[in-house]
Amino acid sequence: MLIRAIAFIGLLGAAAMLHAQSEPTASRLGSLKIGGGFSTANSDYGGRYNGGAAYINFDFLPHIGVEGEFHFVKQPAGLYEKTYEAGGRYFRTYHKFVPYGKVMYGRGVFNFPPLPDGFRPNIAYNLIAGGIGADFKVKPYLYARADWEYQSWFGFQNSSLSPSILTIGAAYRFK
User: Fold this and answer.
1) Which residues pair with 169 in a beta bridge?
2) Can you name the residues that pair with 164 across neighbouring β-strands?
């Protein structure tokens, strides 16, 4: 009986030592989302502008990522603001709700009203932007977004242009 008990304990110990744990062979480097939406801007040059936006996010750490954006908003009179921005973002995930904050740097192009000779100048300016927003997971691969951004354009007609832009849109998340 004692020999059987020792043999049984030995077999349990050997089985425990031989138990293998699987380890992942690969892991994701991050999460990539590409999206777009409708934008409306309240500008201090000419009032309200409407248009669209496109963006790309790459989240490479649990709460930190980078974002690139493009906005194109215009008025019926032909005035427009076009911006290209890139920067960092900090986000948190609360089940399906993902609020975030961002800081961006970029370039903006402003199309001015026509001059008396008919020439319509457009000039590019550097800008910084900060914003907040939230993504909502509709499906594991589909996100809805609400985003607010404040921009400050440098050297705009010897002052500064500072539009605020609201964007409502959606994005696809690649696995």
Assistant:
1) 37, 145
2) 42, 150
Amino acid letter for position 170: A
Q: What's the token pair of residue 161?
A: 């242009």
Using the CB atoms, write b or e for 72-103: b if 16+ within 10 Å.
bbbbeeebbbbbbbebebebeeeeeebebebe
Q: What dihedral angle (degrees, nearest 10) is formed by the CA atoms of 63, 146, 154, 64?
A: 10
Per-residue tokens: 95: 């089940």
Contact 147, 38 (CB under 8 A): no
| Contact between residue 115 and residue 121 where contact means Cβ atoms under 8 Å apart | yes
Q: Which CATH number fits domain 30-174: 3.40.50.12780, 2.30.38.10, 1.10.10.10, 2.40.160.20?
A: 2.40.160.20
Residues of the chain where predicted confidence (pLDDT) is lower than 70? 1-28, 158
Question: Using CB atoms within 10 A of its CB, is residue 8 exposed (0-12), middle (13-18) or buried (19+)?
Answer: exposed
pTM: 0.79
